[in-house]
User: Which sequence fits this backbone?
């Protein structure tokens, strides 16, 4: 065989070697295709490792986000402080008091539609209601009276002769008499919460040429406080109840100096205030009395004394 002519031919030998190499490659590819593929099996150990790794990565990402949020916060904004007064919320001072459901200011006073009374038309009665509500606002809600103890706003609403009669008292310093007409606030300032009111106005005929508007209402004031000064809403919310007649007179039959608004008979009741201050004509919160312990919640029957539809108590809580 070795001396066969074909084997002795160089070109034939090269061709045979190429064909042999190609055949070997094809055979290798065929064997690889026929070989079964190995499948990856998820063992319990692998599952645990993947779970732990994922959890650590998630916690790390969360910590990074929180850190970035803290770093990006506005440094000029202080954190919200925790409440400093036990049982007292200065943002909602009327909570847990009888005034919790009352409306702010004059909105709490019911004013009926005007109807003709005696010699006054329905329009004149309406005007009288408006004049009286203005007087109540000036006396019990106006900043000039509350803060400055100035009765000028109330005086401007009165008939000329009534104004002259009360001028000196309502423009002087605080007194018990002046406190009958105006609410005067001392160094213990009011909170940002506006006073609340409840009550109503009614009209009746007086003497000839007179219309009597009866105001029956209660005002609750919320005072500010520092930590430790008050322990309950009752310590910062005093109540003022008024039963007051306002008289509107016509000219004629009255002279011009008497025509307009004047005070008639009235009575009042004060509760949950500082007794030392009220004896000087100043309204102050109950906690301002340093010589007596802070009182606890009011008795159940005391709440009725704030109701304008109930009989007026004969004595103030300070005696």
Assistant:
């Amino acid at each position: 065989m070795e001396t066969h002519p074909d084997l002795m031919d160089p070109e034939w030998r090269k061709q045979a070697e190429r064909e042999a190499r190609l055949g070997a490659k094809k055979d290798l590819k065929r064997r690889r295709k026929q070989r079964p593929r190995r499948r990856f099996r998820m063992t319990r150990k692998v599952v645990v490792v993947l779970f732990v790794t994922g959890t650590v990565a998630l916690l790390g990402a969360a910590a990074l986000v929180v850190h970035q949020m803290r770093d990006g916060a506005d440094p000029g904004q202080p954190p919200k402080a925790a409440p400093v007064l036990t049982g007292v919320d200065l943002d909602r001072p009327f909570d847990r008091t009888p005034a919790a459901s009352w409306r702010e200011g004059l909105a709490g006073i019911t004013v009926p539609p005007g109807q003709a009374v005696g010699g006054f038309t329905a329009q004149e009665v309406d005007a009288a209601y408006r004049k009286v509500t203005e007087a109540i606002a000036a006396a019990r809600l106006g900043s000039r009276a509350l803060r400055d103890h100035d009765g000028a706003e109330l005086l401007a609403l009165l008939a000329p002769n009534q104004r002259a009669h009360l001028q000196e008292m309502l423009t002087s310093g605080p007194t018990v008499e002046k406190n009958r007409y105006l609410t005067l606030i001392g160094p213990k300032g009011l909170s940002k919460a506006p006073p609340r009111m409840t009550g109503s106005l009614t009209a009746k005929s007086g003497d000839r040429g007179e219309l009597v508007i009866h105001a029956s209402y209660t005002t609750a004031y919320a005072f500010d406080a520092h930590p430790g000064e008050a322990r309950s809403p009752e310590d910062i919310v005093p109540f003022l109840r008024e039963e007051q007649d306002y008289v509107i007179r016509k000219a004629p039959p009255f002279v011009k100096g008497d025509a307009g608004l004047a005070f008639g008979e009235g009575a009042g009741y004060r509760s949950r205030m500082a007794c030392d201050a009220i004896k000087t004509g100043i309204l102050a919160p109950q906690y301002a009395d340093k010589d007596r312990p802070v009182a606890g919640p009011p008795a159940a029957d005391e709440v009725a004394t704030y109701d304008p539809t109930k009989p007026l108590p004969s004595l103030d809580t300070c005696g």
